[in-house]
Specification:
Elements lengths: L1 E2 L5 H10 L4 H13 L12 H10 E2 L4 E7 L6 E6 L5 E9 L2 E5 L3 E3 L14 E4 L2 H15 L3 E6 L9 H12 L11 E5 L6 H6 L5 E5 L5 H7 L8 H15 L4 E6 L7 H14 L2 E6 L13 H13 L4 E3 L13 H12 L1
Parallel strand pairs: 1-2, 6-9, 9-10, 10-11, 11-12, 12-13, 13-14
Antiparallel strand pairs: 3-4, 4-5, 5-6, 7-8
Helix pairs in contact: 1-2, 4-5, 9-10
Bound molecules: S-adenosyl-L-homocysteine (SAH).
């Protein structure tokens, strides 16, 4: 069966055409899907026989809310969605003064093995389908009752390890008849799978590419992020430069500050050099403590001092607010709990 929520309106039209169905039927179906229909039965302006025929041909599934937590501190909402096959993924909705941002997962689990991250503990289970990523945005918007204007691909999983599905998701979410969210309002975050950077640049998407750097030198970075081994920071910087030259889109470096690991003055100086070289913006954030991980966040005063060094070197730097601290709004923590309970039950 074809997964109809992973299809663009044009593809649905093509498909219907090949079945000799009039084009207005395809349009009606796309409209129902964009309105959130979760079955063909709801599409009341279609003849009953057509609805049954479509049901035989296409699958249509919307994830269910397994858990929803609302932060008392800042209203950040965290959802745990149940997928059709029993897996679960997380989505976070953050309210900012410029609109609502949704942080979506791209895979069930992750195989990148970053030492500080909760998402990777059980490895990769599977990639998400375009329809599943779209549903994270769609269902979050429907549940919170406010328009989602920004998307960050910073939840569970490595987007570039699910390249084709993520590209399709971007097309869908950007499509005027689907969600109509502008590419400039979307950030894709990667641990640095540089073999995919040129391919991504070729798509010329106007999205923001965020690189999870977390350390400016190979020794520290390879310890924290296995994805650095065999690739290296120099090669990552070259790939970033090429990306910037091709797309004209400034890259962001994500830098989670870990006490005594990546927060020395030497790290700050080298980071400044790297960022200036690539013309990158640096986003600093205190590490979120993860129960299973030994790392601790740097102290606030340490972070401020680190930031001062970057600024004095002329780097464009932002200290990110920590949101949803009371709802475990950091990658993979909620799903991890869900899996643990399931194992225990
Ligand atoms: N795989 C992608 C996107 C998912 S992770 C990537 O690596 O970029 C989203 C961001 O959260 C990344 O910058 C990641 O390094 C960071 N992150 C993961 N665990 C964290 C933690 N415990 N504290 C702070 N940041 C964390």
């Amino acid at each position: 069966m074809k997964d109809i929520l992973s299809m663009l309106p044009e593809e649905i039209s093509e498909d219907f055409k090949s079945k000799n169905l009039p084009s207005f039927r395809a349009k009606q179906v796309s409209e129902w899907l964009a309105k959130g229909a979760s079955s063909f039965d709801e599409m009341l302006n279609l003849p009953k026989e057509l609805r049954s025929a479509l049901q035989e041909e296409y699958s249509l599934y919307r994830p269910e809310i397994l858990r929803k937590q609302v932060s008392r501190l800042d209203g950040t909402v965290k959802y745990l969605w149940g997928l059709q096959d029993g897996n679960a993924v997380e989505t976070v909705v953050m309210h900012n003064n410029y609109g609502n941002t949704v942080c979506i997962s791209t895979q069930v689990g992750c195989r990148q093995g970053c030492a500080f991250c909760a998402s990777t503990i059980g490895g990769l289970v599977r990639c998400l389908e375009p329809s599943e990523m779209l549903s994270e945005v769609f269902a979050s918007q429907a549940d919170c009752g406010e328009r989602i204007s920004n998307i960050v691909l910073m939840g569970i999983g490595e987007p570039l390890d699910n390249f084709d599905n993520v590209m399709k998701f971007l097309q869908l979410v950007n499509h005027p008849q689907v969600m109509n969210i502008g590419m400039r309002h979307i950030s894709l975050s990667t641990c640095g799978l540089i073999e995919r950077f040129d391919e991504l640049a070729e798509k010329d998407l106007q999205i923001t590419l965020s690189v999870s750097l977390h350390a400016p030198d190979d020794e520290t970075r390879s310890k924290l992020m296995p994805a650095n081994r065999g690739r290296g920071v120099d090669a990552l910087m070259d790939a970033c430069k090429r990306y910037y030259e091709k797309t004209g889109r400034r890259i962001s470096f994500e830098y989670s500050m870990i006490n005594g690991v990546n927060d020395t003055e030497a790290h700050a100086r080298l980071l400044a050099k790297r960022a200036k070289d690539v013309g990158a913006h640096v986003n600093l954030i205190a590490l979120n403590h993860v129960e299973e991980r030994a790392f601790e966040p740097s102290t606030q005063s340490h972070i401020k001092a680190f930031m001062k060094i970057l600024e004095s070197e002329g780097v464009n730097v932002t200290l990110r607010r920590k949101l949803g601290g009371d709802v475990e709004a950091s990658c993979g923590q909620l799903r991890r709990k869900f899996e643990k309970n399931r194992e225990g039950s």
